[in-house]
Design goal:
Shape: elongated
Helix content: 10-25%
Distance between the termini: 21 Å
Bound molecules: zinc ion
Strand content: 25-35%
């Protein structure tokens, strides 16, 4: 597996965004709107791990707790000792 390739097998979605798409997004043709186009997700490091946040609804989508080993968190095949701010 190439770590720089898109290896995503299942996408994470904001359930509120999915409901709005299912209900019919105002002023759009809901059949043409995909979660990828509609969601406004941002991903970032927190004190506990990695969080996915929906900017459209200002809600937490999920928060993965990461327990770094003594050498830090492994990211993209390299060790990152800073779990608070990752320069991506
Ligand atoms: Zn949302």
């Amino acid at each position: 597996m190439k770590t720089n390739a898109n290896n995503i097998m299942m996408y994470v979605h904001c359930k509120m965004c999915l409901k709005e798409i299912d209900d019919g997004v105002p002023d759009t043709d809901a059949d043409q709107v995909t979660p990828r186009d509609y969601q406004l997700l941002e991903v970032g490091w927190t004190d506990k791990g990695l969080q996915i946040w929906c900017r459209r609804h200002n809600v937490n989508v999920c928060h993965f707790m990461v327990s770094p080993d003594k050498d830090g968190v492994e990211i993209d095949g390299t060790k990152d000792n800073s779990t608070k701010e990752h320069p991506i």
